[in-house]
Here is the input.
Amino acid sequence: MESVKTLYERLLALPWPALGGSIGNFPLYESLIAGCAHRAANGYEVDPTTVPRPDDETLTAVARLRAKPLLSAAERAFLEYFELTEQIRSTLETDR
Amino acid sequence: MEFQVSSGFFERMGRVDAAHALDGLRSREALVVSPRGTVVEKSVIDSWAKGTFLNPVDSLEHHFAKHARGRTRRQYTLDALRFFSEHKDKAEWGRWNPSWSEAFRIKVGSRGGYFTPGGRILSYWDDYGISKDAV
Here is the structure.
């Protein structure tokens, strides 16, 4: 399992997806999860019970995208970015 | 005049990027040295909320890395504040994430942002530097 530090570095290296701003409140969720990951990556404690979860609008949009048989490049890029934020969330919730 | 520097000051100064430092000095404003050695005007830092980051500098650095696309920290921050100011009438007040307190949300076309009640930036994105053909 990758460390939060490695995952956060991957998140930093991944370009912001073009669809990011138009899906639910994903930009706020991304900001909140990135802040927690940044803290953990720098050795600060993050209370697993305070790790943010995606909002319902984002989850609905993600479920719709995952169900699509064919994805555009922008949709694939968004899902890749979202999966990484979810990997970070899962690690923060279980790894501490 | 005597003054005290904060812990880690000299370590941070050792990492100062000279080009950014000169930009900051030219602005004749109070400057802040980020943990990564970036020199930023205090007024720029003061425009940011820390969100879940340790401090507003870290928050700025993350959003700058994601959304600035060639702008300076100052330009990116001013664009966010200008956006807030110009579209305040479209701001929606609400709880946009179950783990976070209420905030202003503004979405206008491909631009958007989340702002605290005091107008500090939680996140801001736009299409600066993106070719219209690419969208």
